[in-house]
């Protein structure tokens, strides 16, 4: 899953697809073509930054950012489109414009989101986040991070099933870096098989995150090796989808991992 932020303020790539404060659709098309050529299978479009401390945006502003990009990709590229949103209006409009997946960092807890997602008929990815992007890194705490995250995700699964969303259309994301300390993140990765055992595809996102900076003392431009190491460990522990910025390099990790796995199964 390739990250395509159509925002001016996302922590790593904010502003890259803007020109004179507007989305540059030609640039978007070229960028998506590059991502697909590098091995992306899903393009995840985000119109609201969820970096720590990020301010919220209006629904109309998010629609204005996201929907033209969804339409552009749907009309010009053969790739699955995910929309990273918590807004029911954006979910509905994105589905009508050609999106294939709803990826919600708030796990469909915003008012109207669960109903809207169910009505679209699209698969959904439910992520755990403690607090909000504005406050999530203000001293996050858990009695047991693995149990607490697992319990939350299972509760959200039940809500989705009750709303009519098929179990075959549910993905889970433990939310690395969202209301979690470095120690919390490392514990979640170590115990990722426990989340995998819930029976739903698990998506993970470590790419360039501050946990790598804290662990290795690396700034954003220097976090690729750490991102790839965490991606490989997630694959080994059962993750099915990697949400990343660096597609070509991560594709090499995936292909190498799969080659070894296939060879091992043939013995």
- Cα end-to-end separation: 31 Å
**Number of extended strands:** 10
Specify the biggest β-sheet.
6 strands, parallel
User: Can you tell me the residue ranges where pLDDT is under 50 for at least 5 consecutive residues?
Assistant: none
> In terms of quaternary structure, what is this?
single chain
**Fraction of residues in H or I helices:** 40-55%
Report mean pLDDT, rounded to a whole number: 91
Given helix and strand content, the structural type is alpha/beta
| H/I helix tally | 10
How large is the radius of gyration? 18 Å
Roughly what fraction of the amino acids lie in strands? 5-15%
Shape: globular
Task: Describe this protein's structure.
The model has no long low-confidence stretch (mean pLDDT 91). It is built from 10 helices and 10 strands. It is α/β, with parallel strands linked by helices and 267 residues long. The strands form 3 sheets. It has a 6-stranded parallel beta sheet. A two-stranded antiparallel ribbon has the order 2-3. The protein has a two-stranded parallel sheet with strand order 9-10. α2 packs parallel to α3 (88-97), α3 packs parallel to α4 and α9 packs parallel to α10 (247-266). The longest helix has 20 residues, at 247-266. The protein has helices spanning 25-38, 59-76, 88-97, 113-120, 145-162, 182-190, 192-196, 210-216, 224-236, 247-266; strands spanning 2-5, 18-19, 22-23, 42-46, 80-84, 101-104, 124-127, 170-173, 203-204, 241-242. A hairpin with a 2-residue loop joins β2 and β3 (22-23). The protein starts with a strand and ends with a helix. The chain is globular, with a radius of gyration of 18 Å.
């Amino acid at each position: 899953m390739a990250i395509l932020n159509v925002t001016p303020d996302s922590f790593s790539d904010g502003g890259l697809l803007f020109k004179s404060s507007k989305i540059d659709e030609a640039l978007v098309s070229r960028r998506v073509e590059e991502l697909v050529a590098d091995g992306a299978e899903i393009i995840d479009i985000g119109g609201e930054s969820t970096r720590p401390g990020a301010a919220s945006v209006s629904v109309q502003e998010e629609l204005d950012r996201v929907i033209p990009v969804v339409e552009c990709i749907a009309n010009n590229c053969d790739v699955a489109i995910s929309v990273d949103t918590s807004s029911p209006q954006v979910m509905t409009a994105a589905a009508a414009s050609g999106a294939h997946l709803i990826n919600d960092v708030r796990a469909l807890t915003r008012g109207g989101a669960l109903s809207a997602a169910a009505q679209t008929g699209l698969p959904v990815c439910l992520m755990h986040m403690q607090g909000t992007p504005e406050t999530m890194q203000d001293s996050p705490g858990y009695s047991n991070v693995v149990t607490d995250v697992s319990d939350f995700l299972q509760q959200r699964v039940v809500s989705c099933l009750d709303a009519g969303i098929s179990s075959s259309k549910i993905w889970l994301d433990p939310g690395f870096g969202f209301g979690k300390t470095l120690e919390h993140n490392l514990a979640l990765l170590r115990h990722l098989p426990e989340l995998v055992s819930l029976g739903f595809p698990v998506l993970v996102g470590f790419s360039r995150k501050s946990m790598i900076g804290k662990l290795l003392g690396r700034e954003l431009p220097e976090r690729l090796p750490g991102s790839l190491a965490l991606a490989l460990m997630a694959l080994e522990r059962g993750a099915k989808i990697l949400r990343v910025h660096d597609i070509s390099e991560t594709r090499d990790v995936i292909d190498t991992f799969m080659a070894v796995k296939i060879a091992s199964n043939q013995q």
